[in-house]
Amino acid sequence: MDCKKFTEEQIAHIKETVGDAKAINALSGGVDSSTVTVLGHQALGKQLKTVFVDNDLMREGEPQRIVKIFADMDIPVDLVDARQEFLSALAGLTDPEEKRQAVTDTFYSKVFVRLVKESGAKFLLHGTILTDIEETVAGIKRQHNILAQIGIDTEDAYGYSVIEPLKTLRKDDVREVAKTLGLPAELSQRIPFPGPALATRIVGEVTAEKLETVRTATAIVEEELCDSGAFQYMAVLLTDRATGIRNNKREFGQIIVVRCIESVDARTATVTPLSWDKLNRICQRITKIKGVNRCLYDLTPKPPATIEYV
Ligand code: XMP
Fold this sequence. Notes:
Elements: H1 3-18, E1 23-26, H2 31-44, E2 48-54, H3 62-72, E3 77-81, H4 83-90, H5 96-119, E4 123-125, H6 130-137, H7 154-158, E5 161-163, H8 171-180, H9 185-188, H10 208-225, E6 232-246, E7 249-262, E8 270-271, H11 276-286, E9 292-297
Parallel strand pairs: 1-2, 1-4, 2-3, 4-5, 7-9
Antiparallel strand pairs: 6-7, 7-8
Helix pairs in contact: 1-2, 1-8, 2-8, 4-5, 10-11
């Protein structure tokens, strides 16, 4: 595809649609929202307000790191602390779709709607991509970011219109566009990370304590596999427990699953044949985390599994 032409067209389209009004967008640091942020700023400059909502579901140090990367590109990003709101909304929920719904509702109907009102924005720029639309329409999963496609009128429900500049692209095209826009490789080549973030990496109820565990495991897995060239890798915390021994004492501990997959566009995936040494090293590090005494490697392709667990 012709990335230069695509970006020019989208910038013109955003300019024309927004006119003199104000727009807002939420940045998560993933390649999709990062690309939309740069496109939006090139089109609208100061008319666009970009916010990063800290939902407590992010990776270690992520909110601050992302804000800094954009500041270095002269794009100001407001960091909004909504950690308590998300944790309260997720309390007591164990069903995957209810958890996703809680993250959606907290984001759109509580936090974002407040930010939109405060900003006076009439337009929301969103990083929806083609795969999100296809999988949601097919009923495979309710992605949190495509309210419009599933028949929710955002203007009615939330008071703004949505612009989705990437909705015709798949992930590999988005990365190309990101590169064309001058995003650093750290962002353009970033592995996918779901909107509901670590809530999709905890089976069962999301609590501050479990988030800490899965955050630590995620940091280990990402450090060990960042040069694997794999499409995506992650750590998942299960609700099941297993007996183990620590300091000569029986421990009914937690279980972390490591997943590492190859894919082009996340519609199908195969498992990366990691070396035994690498797997052992990851296992050793993961089982040093407080309360975790088992580490499993998931061998399941997509289908029949999805990539995330929730
Ligand atoms: P699944 O688990 O459906 O994931 O096989 C396919 C790809 O999509 C990512 N994913 C999401 N991305 N919002 C997103 O922006 C979401 O709610 C979401 N759920 C899954 C997942 O990480 C994988 O790359």
